[in-house]
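Consider the tokenized backbone below.
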């Protein structure tokens, strides 16, 4: 009987989603800096757009910081505005 209950739960929810954690919070987390182009380029798509937080799992506060740093790096010419 326990096996039947287990399979019915798995049939309803076939894909288990694990909660993503923000990569910028916690100990040993990298600091968001507009001069760190390698870090910022991970959060910019190949078309030059800032990747949304629902994909990267960055918290809302850190996403705003990240967007500001990317825009600042673009303005200084460290990052490209768009790829050709």
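A designed sequence for it:
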């Amino acid at each position: 009987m326990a096996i039947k209950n287990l399979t019915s739960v798995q049939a309803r929810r076939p894909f288990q989603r694990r909660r993503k954690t923000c990569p910028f919070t916690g100990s040993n987390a990298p600091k968001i800096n507009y001069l760190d182009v390698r870090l910022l380029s991970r959060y910019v798509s190949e078309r030059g757009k800032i990747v949304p937080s629902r994909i990267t799992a960055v918290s809302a506060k850190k996403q705003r910081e990240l967007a500001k740093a990317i825009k600042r790096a673009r303005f200084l010419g460290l990052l490209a505005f768009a790829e050709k």
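The mean pLDDT is 87.
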